[in-house]
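dude i think i finally got it to work??
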Amino acid sequence: MSEIGSTPFSAEEIAAEGIKPEEYQEIVNRLGRHPNKAELGMFGVMWSEHCCYKNSRPLLSQFPTTGDRVLVGPGENAGVVDLGNGLRLAFKIESHNHPSAVEPFQGAATGVGGILRDIFTMGARPIAILNSLRFGNLENARTRRIFQGVVEGISHYGNCIGVPTVAGEIYFDRAYAGNPLVNAMALGLMETDEIVKSGASGIGNPVLYVGSTTGRDGMGGASFASSELTDDSMDDRPAVQVGDPFLEKSLVEACLEAFKTGAVVAAQDMGAAGLTCSTSEMADKGGVGIELDLDLIPARETGMTPYEYLLSESQERMLFVASKGREQELIDIFHRWGLHAVVAGAVIEEPVVRILYQGAIAAEVTATALADDTPIYKRELLKEPPAYAQKAATWEADDELPGCDYQGIDVQGTYKTWNEILLQLLDTPTIASKQWVYRQYDHQVQNNTILLPGGADAAVVRVRPLDAKPENCNIGVAATTDCNPRYVYLDPYEGAKAAVAEAARNLSCVGAEPLAVTDNLNFGSPEKPVGYWQLANACRGIADACREMSTPVTGGNVSLYNETLDSDGNPQPIYPTPVIGMVGLVPDIAKICGQSWQQAGDIIYLLGTDSQLITHHSPQRSSLGASEYLAAIYNTVAGKPPVVDFDLEKNVQAACRHGIRQGWIQSAHDLAEGGLAIALAEACIGNNFGADINLPVSESQRLDELLFGEVASQIVVSVNSEMTAAWEAYLQSNLTDCWMRIGTVGEAESNLNILTNDNLSLINVKIRMLSDTWSQAIESKLVP
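look at this
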């Protein structure tokens, strides 16, 4: 081992590893000496926000994490929930934001590969991929390049490995111009009898390295993900991994085969921080140590140093602890699949990570110092909202926007009809069809996708285990990702609550019972008072909402320091974006529905409000504050986001699920960006049926608020006309006054016709015009 302790590192060398001066002193205190280069790198990646959550861990502790269906909660590679009938679902979401900003294709592709490894490391076969994406405005050439590269990377990896990409969400806003968000979520069905955990055990058990070779790609990726993006970051391509989906397909099969032998004691994916993370976390969770010899690691490059081996994030690699004497059995499995598999170390009694190289000790650190006993920062919370939020909260539509009449509104000197505004909103990329994206994804591979992308508020996938017992053949799982970042920016607490409520609402709109959450917390710097205020209040909102909805958090990912320097050199954070990934149970896949009208003559209802609430100020009345209408039409971000009434929310969702399972409801679509008019337009577009709508209007009602205002807890449903008596009797008993009959599904290729209660026309547009505008919006903006 090289002489240690004689020469401390310079301030520049310490900062280059993402370590603060006081953290370096703590490292010296713990070691009783100065670290060497390899050890400094190990602490740098393991003490990064990406790995140890040093700013967010105190906030995450308030999340509810247990429930009747939770089998594995936070702390493992993925959460696992019980679907009943012996079926168990693993699921997780993670970010690959900074790599995707630097190298969009590989950044996004390896994000997909990494989340899939989290799933099959548990012993589950991946069955679906989702994503949650944020980009700047498509008018910007760099944004277009990043957007196209990310989509290509996602489709490449998912299509090649043979896992369907079934759902997702995409927002476009200048707040993400320099720092896109690429969050990938995956689901998997457990194939092994026992859930595979990551804690090492059994002194003397061999440690196996399996999968691909190790190179210099992805060097320091965890530290890279835990710092702001600068101009220098764009040249940091070694921090971006390179993936091979065909090799990972072999790795999936080899791992599942190996797990079924019972010879694998523990398994850990080599993702962020590579060998450093896998050895230290496995050792720490098991209360043991691991000794690893780098000379035995299959390498794809020559002359690699211990620092490079330990910080490489080369893809498609795993670390196993095997039962002693059965290692060759596992090695043979991986060799049959054309993969590397070697005994590279052993479990030791001393609770350290000991790294050998060329016959000497290259690094030796207590495992818990790397994996658990890490710096934790409990920062002071602002006593009141920051100035921008206080100012936004005082915004009122009647004070700031011109008055409107039945024909339209004067927008910055140009009179626009409600028809024109509806079409303009449908042309907005955040609202517009994402078919340009999902048509590049193979969403039907494995032949289990029931509801296709774009056709429903959530994806539904048939759960078809290998044994295919008859009682399991009709069970499905629904999944969604959700977050309105504008809501969270204006009010982090209420915005985060709304994200959880909407995710559950989207599941209920396809007939699924919400079960559990995996979250991806994308924020700016927590070291700045405003950034920490946003993070802390959003976490509180998620915690409260998950308790209300009985959807515990089983794990997730924290991605902080999502900031870029503006032209003046000042860091500009993204909108706070706590993405909620939620899964739900579909007891019978024959009893689900999508968002589009199914037949002319069906009766249309609005759940979550009535004629009194819709025309008078109340939490159930839509508002223009924080709305897409306000941002897209007036270029204004202000006001308050909708406030969730959880008693109403749960009742509305329960009514929707019950109506679907009874066969009454033919379609269901929640009110989100763009409000009621957009929800109705989207329901028309899917199958090209029109709609005749009649809405109550009071004298004081703003018509733009009625049409395009946004609100929580409302769902538009259509019901077979022969079933309305039973449906309305149920509503009267279970939803009392919080529902309205608002219209009828029209003939195919007709119009969306929205009238007031005194038969004055507000909107009358041909469905073909709505469809053409909505479907062509994104693709048309990709042409320079």
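The longest helix spans residues 141-161.
im so relieved honestly
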